[in-house]
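User: Okay, second chain of the day. Same drill as before: sequence in, structure tokens out.
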Amino acid sequence: MELLKVDQIEKYYGNKSSLTKAIDDISFEVEKGEFVAIMGASGSGKTTLLNCISTIDRVTAGHIYLEGEDVTALKGKELNKFRRDKLGFIFQDFNLLDTLTAYENIALALSIQKYGVSEIDKRVKAVAEQLGISDVLNKYPYQMSGGQKQRVASARAIITDPKLVLADEPTGALDSKSSKLLLERFVYLNQEQNATIMMVTHDSFSASYASRVVFIRDGKIFHEIVKGEDKRKTFFNKIIDVMTLLGGDVSDAV
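Assistant: Same drill. Structure tokens below.
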């Protein structure tokens, strides 16, 4: 079942004297329960694409639909409600509040939505168990490792059962062990909790955990590959092959 539809979107920056086309007529769809990675070299438009889907940025032309609703037409309170109720965000730099514990950071979104105390407690403890962070719930961000902070950020993103989880380079600030743990949790959330995930990454190892990879070059879709029945190592090698064709720095991709 189609969850997200990106329909002929374009995004320009600048003015008439200096105009940059960051996204050039991109269209694709994401099915409910998919785990999609967006890849491309620096400046390819992949983060701009994620920002447009997340409504952080507005498209210059075209439309984006989530569950049939044209999100490019939303404004004001409707837009805020859409972001709050239907999207989950995971950022590279975590964006945790330093003055709140892990528990309080995760619970904040539910508090804003006016959930009761007992329901908040039940949900926070359940998601912490899923992501392996039950032991850090009473710690502050400065007391946690990078991997723990990113998993807390991931818990915060999914606690409200969003329709779409958007992750921007979620492993960029993590060591290889923490990255692997986080990506395995993403797969768990995707396969066991049916979470729909869209992840921007420059890293082929991270992308190999997805079920589909869309490659962007110069603001356009260059290619896409689907994992299907492939083992992750086979899929990883296919990703490397496409990154080589893209002309990206393969050492960065690995």
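Residues 249-254 have pLDDT under 50 and may be disordered.

User: Thanks, on to the next one.
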